[in-house]
Amino acid sequence: MSSGGLELPPGDSGHEGGPADAPGGAAGSVPGGSAGVSGGVGGLPGGAPGGAPGGAGGAPAGTVSLAASPAAGSVRAGAELDWGADAWSEVRTRAQRAGRAYIWLNLIEQRLRSVVGAVLRPIYEPVHGEDDWVVAAAGPAGQEWVQRAVAVREVSRRKGYLLDPADDNVLSFLTLPQLRELMVQHWPCFEPYFDDRREIELALDELEVTRNVVSRNRALSRAVLEQAERASARLLEVLGGGSGSPSADRLPIDAVEDLVGDRYADVVSVHPDRVRLQRQLPAEDLFGGARRLDAIGIGLNLLVQNFSGRRLVRLTEAGCRVRLLFLNPASSAVKRRERELGLRKGELSRSVEMNILHVRRVRAGLRDPSRFEIHVFDETPRFTAYLVEGETSGVAVVQSYLRRARGMEAPVLVLRGGGTRSPARDAGHGENGLFPTYREEFESIWQDSRPVS
Question: By percentage, how much of the chain surpasses pLDDT 90?
Fold first, then answer.
């Protein structure tokens, strides 16, 4: 029964034009109506029975058939709600990229809020008070958005959303574009602290694209994410929140790593082989600017074959101390390794000898050869490691030797370690990482090794 007491007409039997062609069809029915409910509703305004006597599938008169077709019973009703493997993969990728971008945006907003407060608060607060100085700084041009921020703060107060008393101020409720607007309006106040206003505005323009995508939960492309990370790092440097250390530029700290790095000790990245490592961390970026370089392995191909002798000379003359530890090419361990890899007899030992001769020539061209030491060891090689340290930061590339895989094919760990003058290292804070473990192992083998004349 309808709400007006009228009986709903029976549904169509699945044939197009059924209600209009049937005897006694209602004038208000839709010619060529599609399926049962649509045909029935078409006769509803006239209040007369529309459609053929008897419902679809033998349903009695006066009932409404929900079947779209005679075969509807074999079709699953409703939309497909399940996510397949491809959908889940896409969702994870979106979430990971959005999460990384959000962390950068969070850092920038906190930093800019701090800068705006440090510069404008002493100017406006003595006159307008603690609560109203932001409103006064916004002026008539920012009246609308600053009043909205005040209203949001009041709602947050009433509902108990403010967990930190430090956030109970209007400045904490301003968004990144609004903080930028305050900075632009009062640029003469900020000019003594920053050299280039245009650089700051360009970086914030690039971040605005990412902020809009993340705030609306849309897909963030890799190109936009990388652009946002570069702009954020540059902006933090300009605003005084960067590292300020040239050596840190070789392997800059990732925002996510900086926040959750303790979950992974000091492991920065993992690569399935050395080829993929060198795409992300070329030899020039790894070894260039080092103040201390210690390497241990069978032939040290990553250094010898990818970093020229002239660069090694310049690196050492610039003050870097180098210690290279090769597997003795005449040892029985080399012969066992040749058998493991299926190499011809003497093939690996000749390769190691060539690498040693190369670094000996490098050492011979130095004004102070004592800064470039070459040793060999006779033990079973268990890993290859390049321990590179700058003034304030360090990085290690470590590979384990697998029985059937050459060094180029073995998985690679990239570790972050302390620099030659790292306060954290001096205080012993790096004892839970892997970098000190491989450093200790290197020193132990170095003590038992023999120098190459």
Answer: 36
